[in-house]
Amino acid sequence: MVPSAQTNINTQFILLDKGRTEIVGQNWTCLALVADETAAVLFQFWSDDCDSFEPGDIIHLINGIFSYNRNNLVLRAGKRGTIKKVGEFTMPNMSEIHWASDPNNSKKYVQETAIFTHSHIFPSLA
């Protein structure tokens, strides 16, 4: 992809992380980090879309725009583009698990709690 004002970006990506929401005029916006199998880029959500998507969501973008915003390359739907959730990332993230020694066998570990608050895979056991 290269920066352009054309609305012709059609792609699918995973939402990795969302930034804070900011007020812009009468609307609000938030930047998110998204990625596909080739690269990661910032994505700009507007208004209700800021709350409609969560990390781990797989999103399909139709007629999007890839342009500069405050000296950053940003992918966005724009006025004519659309975004739609088409799935969720379901592979377990081993980094989000807190492991503890097994009380019955000191050479083994057991899952104690999930650390990551957005986890859909490992609910907290605490």
UniProtKB/TrEMBL annotation:
The keyword Translocase does not apply. The keyword DNA-binding applies. One of its GO terms (biological process) is double-strand break repair via homologous recombination. One of its GO terms (molecular function) is DNA binding. Signal peptide: none annotated. InterPro entries: NA-bd_OB-fold, SOSS-B. Keywords: DNA-binding. GO terms for cellular component: SOSS complex. It comes from the Eukaryota. Gene3D superfamilies: Nucleic acid-binding proteins (2.40.50.140). PANTHER family: OB FOLD NUCLEIC ACID BINDING PROTEIN-RELATED, SOSS COMPLEX SUBUNIT B HOMOLOG. This is OB domain-containing protein. It comes from Manihot esculenta.
